[in-house]
Design a protein that fits this description.
This protein is α+β, with helices and mostly antiparallel strands. It binds adenosine-5'-diphosphate and magnesium ion (MG).
Length: 570
């Protein structure tokens, strides 16, 4: 092995550049952030050949004088941070002072800039980090940075560049995320002299989203704001009935900085848990305002990862903000007064069988009676159900308003149980069992359950210890199936043991409710009478979010005319 050597400065900056600057997209990200920090209201990104030949970012921001411009390129310099203590009060996107220097080290860079107060601007040409010319230049106030022949001096890196098409896609994707958080800025993106998009200033992030997503999606969007202590949230998201096959439309900003953060993603997933099928994702744009001293953005050179001081609070704020806009705690009395009509109950056609269940989803927040209590006078609203038969003791063949459907009895029942437990856990007592036998459980089950009685009793069922080996189940949701109490208790204990340490309460509660619902539901392989089937299907149809079970499995197969036509090739 050779002796340790001190690397020359040029090598060091090439290595450093490699970390932040991987590809044209990363150059654009840094230059656009600089333009935003310079308070620009117009930003243009033009590239040639996927940015491999040329990247040009122009803005109408504050500009730089000749001295600053030189400094910004020559070394790690920033106007945004004077002291390490300032990191705690950071309000700009950039602060590391290395982007321009790093880009200049691996390209041919030209910067042209003029401050409003100066008569003339300056034009600097830089090659491999060295300034080769400096001239006065005429231009409107603002800055243009041109980056040519990226990685010309790092051939190894050049080999790994993506195709132009992939790069244009990635840049377009990046810009159309960023512009949501900056509605006041107009953006233009052009490739090989052809506009990819142009977007005019807008009033709000919502307006930008409408423009981007089109009318169909816009109809399915909710907007909510909230705050918890010093953290504010502005969320724009699709209702559970409108999902996408990937996370492409999930975009998170912390203090208007575009971030990738697992804890935010998890909170969003939890908020939609049980409401959408697995493998489907909502659109969800989240703008979080977090005091700078409660978030660390200096975790990664590209500044896309963040660390929150109060991660749990942020999780629960996100969860509550989203979830409460489609799942209101439903109040259900254990002995519901008969003939109870709530004004909302009238507008509760179950969202099934309609392709895009409706704006009424919002109003479906039934505050009092669940729809199954709608009296006969309201029967017109009810869907007409005819039961034909049960197959394989598992599938019910029926028609709903004349349309043939096949329903999985277990999954439908599981959804009903889950919703009931959710309502019961929200506040109302469940059905109390007068006679309940103590159930003897294994030792470890006893101690796990005993240590977590509060969590369990917040799920809408109620258990009490009986001696030091057994439990009695005091109350369950009404109409529970013929569940096996021992298996229920054991599953609860297993679920609690498997829950990640420090998982937020609402996550644990939801997990427990999910397993209890599964246990208490009518199982597959169980023979049902025609009356039982009718009762099940009718109740199922009145439930909210009835397209999938809490695990995301579909419940009902609709034999639509189109499906039949296409099967028979008509
Ligand atoms: P940072 O953004 O982390 O400060 P950069 O290397 O990206 O570091 O930029 C260095 C400095 O150059 C910035 O702090 C800013 O003062 C100046 N600068 C860069 N781009 C622009 C621009 N488009 N308009 C005005 N000033 C700019
Ligand atoms: Mg910067």
């Amino acid at each position: 092995m050779s002796a340790i050597r001190v690397l020359d400065e040029k090598t060091v900056s090439k290595i450093a550049a490699g970390e932040v600057i991987e590809r044209p997209l990363s150059v654009i990200k840094e230059l656009v952030e600089n333009a935003i920090d310079a308070a620009a209201t117009e930003i243009a990104v033009e590239i040639q050949e996927g940015g491999h030949r040329l990247i040009r970012v122009s803005d109408n921001g504050c500009g730089m004088g000749p001295d600053d411009c030189r400094l910004a390129i020559e070394s790690h310099t920033t106007s945004k941070l004077a002291d390490i203590a300032d990191l705690d009060s950071l309000a700009t996107l950039g602060f590391r002072g290395e982007a321009l220097h790093s880009i200049a080290a691996v390209s041919h860079l030209t910067a042209t800039s003029r401050r409003r107060q100066d008569e003339v601007g300056v034009c600097l040409r830089v090659e491999g980090g060295k300034i080769i010319s400096e001239e006065p230049a005429a231009r409107n106030p603002g800055t243009t940075v041109e980056v040519e022949n990226l990685f010309y001096n790092i051939p190894a890196r050049q080999k790994f560049l993506k195709t132009s098409r992939a790069e244009v896609q990635a840049i377009s994707n990046f810009l159309s995320r960023v512009f949501i958080a900056y509605p006041e800025i107009s953006f233009r993106f052009a490739h090989n002299d052809v506009d990819v998009f142009r977007i005019e200033p807008a009033e709000s992030p919502m307006e930008r989203i409408h423009a981007q997503m089109g009318r169909e999606v816009s109809g399915a969007i909710e907007e909510a704001r909230g705050n918890l202590k010093r953290v504010g949230i502005h969320a724009i998201f699709t209702r559970p009935d409108f999902t996408f096959p990937n996370r492409r439309f999930q975009t998170y900003f912390v203090n208007r900085r575009l971030v990738k953060d697992r804890s935010i993603t998890i909170a969003v997933d939890t908020a939609y848990k049980g409401l959408i099928p697995s493998g489907r994702y909502p659109m969800c744009i989240m703008l979080l305002a977090v005091p700078p001293d409660e978030v660390d953005v200096n975790v990664h050179p590209a500044k896309t990862e963040v660390r929150f001081l109060h991660e749990h609070e942020i999780h629960s704020l996100i969860y509550r903000t989203i979830r409460s806009s489609f799942v209101e705690p439903l109040k259900v009395e254990s002995e519901p007064p008969l003939k109870l009509v709530s004004p909302q109950a009238k507008i509760s056609p179950p969202p099934l069988l309609q392709p895009h269940p409706p704006a009424v989803q919002r109003e479906l927040k039934l505050e009092s009676a669940p729809p199954l209590l709608v009296p006969d006078a309201e029967a017109d609203d009810k869907q007409r159900v005819e039961i034909y038969d049960q197959f394989y003791d598992t599938f019910i063949f029926a028609t709903v308003n004349g349309q043939p459907v096949i329903i999985d009895q277990h999954i439908a029942s599981e959804r009903i149980m889950y919703n009931r437990l959710k309502r019961a856990s929200a506040d109302a007592p469940s059905q109390r069992l007068l006679i309940s036998e103590p159930v003897e459980v294994p030792h470890y089950v006893f101690s796990v359950l005993n240590d977590n009685l509060d969590a369990i009793n917040s799920t809408g069922i109620e258990i009490e210890s009986f001696g030091d080996r057994a439990f009695v189940i005091r109350s369950v949701v009404h109409n529970a199936g013929a569940y096996d109490p021992l298996s229920l208790l054991t599953t609860l204990a297993n679920e609690i043991t498997a829950a990640p340490f420090k998982a937020p309460d609402n996550v644990i509660q939801d997990k427990l409710i999910t397993v209890v619902a599964c246990k208490m539901a009518i199982q597959g392989g169980q023979k049902l009478s025609r009356e039982e089937m009718k009762a099940l299907v009718e109740e199922y149809l009145t439930e909210e979010f009835n397209r999938t079970c809490p695990h995301g499995r579909p419940i009902m197969f609709e034999l639509s005319r189109e499906a039949l036509n296409s099967w028979f090739k008509r």
